[in-house]
Amino acid sequence: MTKSGILLLAKTAGSTSFRSLNQVKRALDTKKVGHSGTLDLFAEGLLVVAVGSCTKIIEDFTLFDKEYEAVIQFGTETDTLDPQGQIVKTVPSPTKEVVLQAMSRFVGEINQVPPQYSAIHVDGKRASDLARSGKMPEMKSRKVKIYSFEMKDFYENFAHVKVSCSKGTYIRSLARDLAEKCGSAGHLKALRRTKIGPFALENACGANLLPPFSIENALADKVEQTINLAEIPDCLMVFTPEISEKCGAKNAFLHESRLSDFLCGKKLKPADFAFNEGCDGDFNVFCGENFVGKIHRDGKKVVYRFVIPEGNR
């Protein structure tokens, strides 16, 4: 039977998100795995991984706000806006006071231009692929929200910052724009994702392998760490009504006598469910504690979004 659930996984710097997912596939002996958002090769931190039938709701997780810690290096800008790129600009670094003053101007809704080296599609192709081929894509500005932007430490030309932001925010772009606002240039030296919606890195499998995030550790040589695959199955969380609510979703509880009809896709009505929140909209459907699918309710009408067959739960 396919294992299903939610796994919080700590990605290490130097490992790709794809490789991290392969570790999960091997540990759980499944190919049905997805995650809530890629982290760049140099970055580390939280991946929310959906396994088995829970891959059907992975798009819900991509909508969550996120939280990061980053080390910004001032004085140089790279083409990729991260430590793996080529230096394209060198200017004097700003003082701590200038950086602090500029940071306050980024809180709230801002217009942000994503990096050219990113997974965003331009004319049907990844912007990063176009950039690597020498065709520098024109990136369109878009609105994102910065809920908080704090400085944790400042040393020489490095700033350790903490950012709480909406989905779609690029911290590499934020570092570039902050440096520009300071009359300088900058790129990310290190990045760690610490939260995705209600999920925190501290609760992730492998989080103990990550050293404290600091300027000192960002400048130190990285020692590759590997998660013990035997730990992964114990970290897999069943998708329960409580976790669903924690994610901000609405739940509908299917009466057990109607489970067979639900699994067969037969016509149902609102009376077949107990709704614990709201009247209309999308609902995650549970029969007892078992996640069995999703519906959309519109008044007296119930429409299936998807059904999870019994053997796939």
Structure description:
The chain has about 325 residues and is an alpha+beta fold. It has three domains: about 110 residues, 2-Layer Sandwich (Alpha-Beta Plaits), CATH 3.30.70; about 130 residues, Pseudouridine synthase (2-Layer Sandwich), CATH 3.30.2350.10; about 70 residues, Roll (Archaeosine Trna-guanine Transglycosylase, Chain: A, domain 4). Strands 1, 2, 3, 4, 7, 10, 11, 12 and 13 form a nine-stranded mixed β-sheet that branches. The N and C termini lie close together (about 10 Å).
Portion in helices:
10-25%
Question: Low-confidence spans: pLDDT under 50, at least 5 residues?
Answer: none
| Helix/strand/pairing category | alpha+beta
Could you state the order of secondary-structure elements as H and E?
Answer: EHEEHEEEHEEEHEEHEEHHHEHEEEE
Q: In percent terms, what proportion of residues is strand? A: 25-35%
State the domain count: 3
Can you count the helices?
9
Can you summarize the main beta sheet?
9 strands, mixed
- CATH homology superfamily of the largest domain: Pseudouridine synthase
Report the radius of gyration as a whole number of Å.
22 Å
CATH class of the largest domain: Alpha Beta
Number of separate strands: 18
Overall outline: elongated
And the CATH topology of the largest domain?
Answer: Pseudouridine synthase
Q: What CATH architecture of the largest domain would you give?
A: 2-Layer Sandwich
Q: What's the average pLDDT?
A: 91
How far is the N terminus from the C terminus? 8 Å
